[in-house]
Amino acid sequence: MKIIYLHQYFKLPTENGSHRSWYIAQFLQKKGWEVEIITASKKARLLFSDNLKIHYVSVSYAQEMHFLRRTIAFLNFLIKAIHKILKIPNISLIYATSTPLTIGLIALILKKIKKVPYVFEVRDLWPLVPIEMGYVKSKIFQRFLFWLEKKIYQNAEKIVVLSPPMEEYVRRIVPEKPILCVPNMSDCEIFFPQNKKKENEPFRIAYFGSMGKANALERLLQVAEKHPEIEFWIIGEGSEKKKLQQIASQKVYFFAGKPKHELNEMLAYADAFYVSFAEYPSLETCSPNKFFDGIAAGKLCITNTKGWVKDLIEKYECGFYADSPDEFKEKIQPFLQDKSLLQTYQNNARHLAEKVFNKEILCSKIVDFISA
Predict the structure, then answer these.
(1) Which residue ranges does the record assign to the Glycosyltransferase subfamily 4-like N-terminal domain (predicted)?
(2) Interatomic CA distance for residues 113 and 250, integer angstroms
């Protein structure tokens, strides 16, 4: 059986970014599916990689684009992806993973034209996130987007979501649909515990990932300003990077984004990692890749965001939540003073990655759900 895997931001293992789709596609293939991936790149091309057939359609996109240019890029991908998929014969199923919401619209249109069913994966709550963040101001357009979201859910055969609060949200809209919650995954082979720090080096906290408005990294810089005894590494790219570099204090160091194997080597010099989001309720539902990579590397997790990740790290004693610089100061002290406590929390982080979020376990759940 042939499955079309539709993901605008698909990444190979050698590229920076989320590799969730790569993992799932590999497991689908092991279960006997013929997998063809539709994604975007600056240049159209066809690539064969580990028996996966990857169609790249030509769409330019960068996080630095303003909202209108992003929207044009989304619509451009919609048109070109539909055109590409219409030429592919004998499709049994489409697996469409958001964002943006237009991914679901592609699957919906193809269902009507080609009579091909689809599974929809909800990675972020669109349109709720851009609406809460003020990107969509028109009430009429907001109502249209919520209507479209509901139509996409209603027409899906099944739905996969990436966090428990996402599942609650989607179930309120389509309570009759089969819904599976599978968060992002820890790659416990690429990421593993290492400590290459020398005895006299400072306590070091790493942030890695996107530097967009949703990440609100100015909150991390406020913490760094009050803690000259701690070194902060910010690794990645994004629309806010230049501004952050201009206002950062001396003990904050910026690095370009790294492939995962290089990132694991950098984390060998860190004690903790930081998960940061702006204060919007919809962002509390996110399933941030950096969290799963960080715990696989066996590092203390620090987050400034309420929600299910906060509850998780408190339950498994592998990190802490701090909303303000003052709260951070209070909660970081035990780990600065007691290396055995830090080691315990780091061990707990790795255990959580291995036992709960291991990609082998989670990919199997998704593939079984799709195939049933």
Answers:
(1) 23-188
(2) 58
| CB count in 10 Å sphere of residue 73 | 19
DSSP state of 202: P
Tokens of 5: 């895997």
Domain covering 203-355, topology: Rossmann fold (3.40.50)
pLDDT for residue 62: 67
The neighbouring-strand residues paired with 97 are 121
Rounded to whole angstroms, the Cα distance separating 152 from 118 reads 10
CA distance 305 to 233: 19
Each domain of the chain, given as residue ranges in start order, spans 2-185+358-371, 203-355
Query: DSSP 3-state assignment of 127?
Result: coil
CA distance 119 to 268: 38
pTM for this model (two decimals) = 0.94
pLDDT(238) > 70: yes
Mean pLDDT of 134-138: 92
Using the 8-state DSSP alphabet, how is residue 43 labeled? S
How would residue 100 be classed by pLDDT, with cut points 50, 70 and 90? confident
Q: What is the C-alpha to C-alpha distance for residues 156 and 105, in angstroms, rounded to an integer?
A: 11
